[in-house]
Amino acid sequence: MSVYDNLVGQEHVVEIVKKAVAATRTGEETPDISIHGMTHAWVFTGPPGSGRSSAAVAFAQALVCPNDGCGTCNQCKSTANGAHPDVEIIRTEGLSIKIDEVRELLARVAWAPSMGGWRVVVMEDADRLTESAANALLKAIEEPGSRTVWLLCAPTLHDVLPTIRSRCRHLQLVTPSNTAVAQVLQKRDGISPQMADFAARVSQGHIGRARYLANNESVRNTRTTIMKLPLTLKGISSAFTAAQTLVDLATEQANQAADARNEKEVDDLSLAYGKGATGRGMATGGSKAIKELEKEQKTRSTRMVRDGLDAALLDIATFYRDVMMVQAGSSDSLINKELETEINTFAAANKPQATINKINAIMAARTNLGHNAAPLLTIEALMCVLAR
Fold first, then answer.
1. Mean pLDDT across the stretch 173-181?
2. CATH number of the domain within which 91 lies
3. What is the model's pTM?
4. Is 223 among the domain residues?
5. Which long-range contacts (CB under 8 A, 24 or more apart) does 355-362 make?
6. What angle do CA 286, 101, 171 make, to 5 degrees?
């Protein structure tokens, strides 16, 4: 067993990381970021589902593990659970990482390692740093502690401040093949071969989403509804209806995921401030803390809705991608084989240039959502384009 077992199709990254860990055992640090060895700052990039954050966490485990990442010792397990005192794993659930959060982080990582030889910071969403937060982080990376390692994750290098990425060693992850994902689902999760093939194919190599689809019938049913929306677009009225359906589905999924969690967080925080213990309510500051928590929960819900819409738009884009493949005379590699009849009919009734324009419109809508555009208005405008 190894901490690298979950990195599907990333053998090139595993090799580099293993060499870096080996270099730490001999005290070799290579300031030249083009050389395979150890350095104080790394940036992991790759498409969604490629496992960039998993790779960073595996690297952190290997650095603090006495056996270079065995995956079974207390250090490896506590790192994976976010409980290791020398490893900070920053997972933001809001829309951005603000400067106050970075300042608090910098104060903590200034301490010397308490157990192992390294203090490691894994930032899973470095692309969500605000400009001021990124500048604060830059100073820490420019003047690193002697035993501190920064592991930043982002979709692409362009999502990281140029002055930060120029000081980091870059590791590019790739999308694993559908076959590799299907094999993992069968071996590790006990998914049937047919379901594993379906989940791997429609998730386009996104391991986490493939597992989620394979294990949740309601999620598969929701995806089926989403994939049929392009077939309902006959005019302006149907475009607005489809837009409302899509936003409602994303909102419902976000609310289902958030409601139980939000209630538990509020209850736990209330208990921490003494609610019910003395009969006199919460201690001083409790009400303010709960208001701050509710504000964070609202921000998290907003992000969850937008993430849900983004995933739905990617699914719809695969429909038009398949249409384009048929129009180009290649129907052997359809993602949505279950809709082959509908895809063939749609391809025959539309021109290839119109299909390309629709895909471009979907990508533009995703960009606008990422820039905090109003979800319903953005989706309505998109559906009007798709209905042409």
1. 88
2. 3.40.50.300
3. 0.74
4. no
5. 355/320, 355/323, 355/324, 355/327, 356/324, 357/385, 358/320, 358/385, 358/386, 359/317, 359/320, 359/321, 359/324, 361/385, 361/386, 362/313, 362/316, 362/317, 362/320, 362/386
6. 140
